[in-house]
Amino acid sequence: MTNFHILTLFPEMVLQGLHTSILGRAVERNCISIEAVNIRDYTLDKHGKVDDYTYGGGAGMLMQAQPVYDAWRAVEERIAARGASGSRVIYVTPQGRTFHQKMAQELAQEEDLIFLCGHYEGIDERVLEEIVTDEISIGDYVLTGGELPAMVMVDAIARLVPGVLHNTDSAVTESFGDGLLEYPQYSRPEIWHDKRVPPILLSGDHAKVDAWRLEQSILRTKERRPDLYEAYCSRKA
Ligand code: ADE
Q: Probe ligand 1: pick from 137, 147, 151, 154, max atoms within 8 Å of CB?
């Protein structure tokens, strides 16, 4: 069981996206929980303001330390009331380490994970220094806010939590589980647009099917991701 807590200015966006399909069912079955905490609810500003100009000048507004800190404290107190505490706080930012499958596997072991989503030009550095344990990016491009990256990470982590996927194999056998890309797959009909399903998949010989799939995975990885292929070869050597 992992509890995901997402600190954001746009809770509806996050909840709508994450309470759908596989993750929605996993929430109903209590394999995971997902809460979105509205940072604006914690501002002490009487107009509900959460951002201000940056010292030193420059374009755009910055999220202020106070509402972010108080929203985090409220979540930490709820977690502490359950007997846990010291949860990892992940700030999603293009300045962070790049997210990958191994990080997802490691984070899936945690009982609570707090995600902090920035907006506008970012967040006052002083509150980041006090509460953030990990800074993670989803890739070398810049988005308008941290909500989509947080959703990407929650999805990738949540599907590795025991019970979320019915078929425990699929989290292991698919792309990246063993450092290889996934093999091609086919469903009915046997012939479509004159293209035949590879006959070996109809043979019923599971050992041969497995060998064919591994070979295809290796070929694909070599062609499309030489970097992953090199790493695979050195592990096998
Ligand atoms: N916020 C804006 N862009 C981002 C990215 N690429 N990764 C994580 N957080 C972000």
A: 137
